[in-house]
Structure formats: C-alpha cells, structure tokens
Amino acid sequence: MTENEAKKTQESLQDRLAQVVELLQRQRVVEDLTHRQEGHHHDLVENLVHRQNLVELQRKLDDLHSADVAYILEALPLDDRLTVWQLVKAERDGDILLEVSDSVRETLIADMDDHELLAAAKEMDADELADLAPELPRDVVHELMETLDAQQRERVRSALSYDEEQVGALMDFEMVTIREDVSLEVVLRYLRRLKELPGHTDKLFVVDYDGILKGVLPIKRLLVNDPEKKVAEVMADDPVVFQPEEDAYDAAQAFERYDLVSAPVVDKNGRLIGRLTIDEMVDLIREESETEVLNMAGLREEEDIFASVWRSLRNRWAWLAINLITAFVASRVIGLFEGSIEKLVALAALMPIVAGIGGNSGNQTITMIVRAMALDQVSPGNTSRLMRKELAVALINGLVWGGVIGVVAYLLYGSWSLGVVMTAAMTLNLLLAALMGVLIPMTLARLGRDPAMGASVMITAMTDSGGFFIFLGLATIFLL
Predict the structure, then answer these.
(1) In this structure, are residues 240 and 182 in contact, taking their beta carbons and an 8 Å threshold?
(2) Which family is it part of (predicted)?
C-alpha cells in the first residue's frame, strides 16, 4: 500500500468514526426531545426514530472490516462502545474480539452472556481460541472444549501449554502439506479441490508419511515450473524453521530479516506441528512497541483510554509514588545549598537548565540502548565499547552546548566564572546521563526485568538530583 493509499484509508476510517459518533449523539438528542413530549403518539414516534438511527448505524458497521469496527470501539466511551457492540452481527463477534486491544476486549466480554461467548468462540480456529481462552470465564472454556472435535481440542491445549512469548502460543494450525514424490500437476489438482487456501499461504509444506518436514514448495515455484516435475526437484530443502519453545520476538526479527510471509514450526524430532504467519508477527511487534512505550513511562499495563478512574489510578500510582520520592530527594539536594542560592540568585534561574538538558540526553541514550537490546545488538563483548561511545558523545555535547549556555550566562550576569561553572556542570551532568542511560536498562535486564520498565522515570530522577548537586556544588566551591 502506498503512502497516499494508506492516508486515504485512515482518513476514510476517521470519517466513519465521526459518522458513528454523530449518529450516537443524534440518537441521544432525539431520545431527550421525545421524553419531554407528551401525547398519544409519543411512544410510537420515539420507537420509530430510535429504530431508524440504529438501523443506519448498523448499516455503517456492516460495511466496515472487523479491524475497523475494532478501531471504532476502542475510540468510544464505554456506554457508546456497548451500544455499538450490541449492533454488531453475532457472526462477526469473534473476529472483532480478536482485533480489539486486551483492555477493550475485557469490557466487551463482560457485556456478553455465556451463550453469546460460545457462539463467537465456535467460529474461531484453534490458535485463535487459544488467544481468547485465558480471558473467558472458566465454565465457558470448559463447555467450549467439550464441543470441539479431538483434533481441535488437542490443538487448543497445545497452544495453551506455551508461554505467550513463545512461538508455540502464536503458531497457526491451518496449512497445506504435500509429499515430495508427487508431480506438480498432482499438487495443482489437489489445491483446486481445496477451493480455498489458508490465509498468507505463500508456500506449501513438504512432509513424509511420518509428518517430518522435508522442505517447502513456494507457490511461485509451483506456478512457473514444468507440471511434470516432481516436488522434490523444485522444493527448497533448507527453509527457515522454528521450534515452539523459541522466543517469539526472535522469530519476529527473523521474519523481518528474511522477508518471510509464513514459516514452519517443528518439534524436536522435526515433525511439522504448525506454522507462523506474518500477521501474527506484525501484531507481536506492534504490541511489543506499545509495551515498551508504556513501560518507559512507568505504566504497568495497557490501559483503555476510557477506563474507569479507579482502574487508571491502579495502573499509574506505583511509578508516580516512586517519582514523588525522587522529586523529594532532588528538593533536599537543593535544600543543602539554600545558603548559596540566597547569596547568588542567578543559580536558581540556571539550575533547571542543567537538569533539563541532562534528562533529555539521558532519555536519548536510554531509548537507543533499549532498542539495541530488543534487537539483540548488545552483548557482553561490546558493552564497554558502547559505554565509551556514549560517554564520548556526552562529553562533546556537554562541552559544545555547555559552552553555549556558559556564554549566555556570562552575557546575562556579567560573570565569566559563572559561565565556566555552567559549562562544567552541563558537561558532567551529560556524562552522568550517558552512564545511567546505559547502566539502567542493562541492570534491569540482568535482574530479569523489562529493560524499558520505568527507565524514563529513573533517568529523569538521576539527572535531576545529579544535575542540581553538580551545579550547586561547583557554584558553592568556585563562586562563593
């Protein structure tokens, strides 16, 4: 999709959202007006207008892709969201539940009874059921498992047995397998009998009679080669394969590195048990990116933008409490130098500059390090070199921009010694920011925590307290 097409699609989706919001507002206005009216035909008029608005709203929803309906649901307050959700056709419930964010899905499931949940789940494949099952009531999951055939039940249990960050939890069981000793013509006839291929089928999986993966047959090779050739002659016998215990993020990086659309998943004996597809990898990368952004801000989990006040408070309070403590520490650092500030008022005006620039520089460093760690570019062998590089960048930036603010300080207050202190403080605080920007995520990773967890909060705390201490300490020593 080109950039213009993508923009057009997004604009169209925004228009649809605006239309849905307008219809909901119109419905509320009409209901309010009809409630104020009195007369014999009051109930009839209200009912007709109400049904007319809902029919128009439902028609608009029916025209939208499930992912677009999910987008609209996420953008609506809870009451409006549930109103729209009730208008979605029952056969689309499963697809939309899989598309919405976890927090919004929770509100939708809470609005559904067991019968509706079972009806929605019965339309899903095994891998999709495994995604949804942890969020369903236990009795619904139990009843649902009883309705599945033996193969589907085993597939769901298999997917649920893996951690959500493992390949096995994301693999798809719908795939096309063929034998290596048949001709391409036989394969083509077999595909025509299927009438429909699983989504993202760019290759067929070649297995023996025991289900052991022998290779893959890309669709493009199937189409351009002589139909009389055997599969073994044209297949690729060295495909990229994954095992269900592997880390899903490593698999996502492999998909990006090798431009994969699908890839086989095999057990320890080489038996084909599933496949990974590009759509799952894109969703995983997006979720990981969102999680990193939330973690760096100190948010513990994804939050519905229209969540209740209490739930939002529970999600945000922990790191705010930590931030309050660090802010108190910074204030006590300033308190240690009250006498210096009273004697030289210029210090009060200049010290936020040192802390603010240090915080920005530290966030730049920590963002680069977290990204590099996510891409597995940081190893014990290059840590010291990485540290030296970041310190060198901080030193040069400190001398250049510290020199600039030092000149400004001299011009404003007529003190060259104040300018020198400003330059020195800026340089030292940037060095501190670079050091902490490397050490914080690495320490978190070594402790088994997400390296982005609260990183932004911690680096700001270090550069604020450190910046105040360095600047006011130098000023006390050399200016007073």
Answers:
(1) no
(2) Belongs to the SLC41A transporter family.
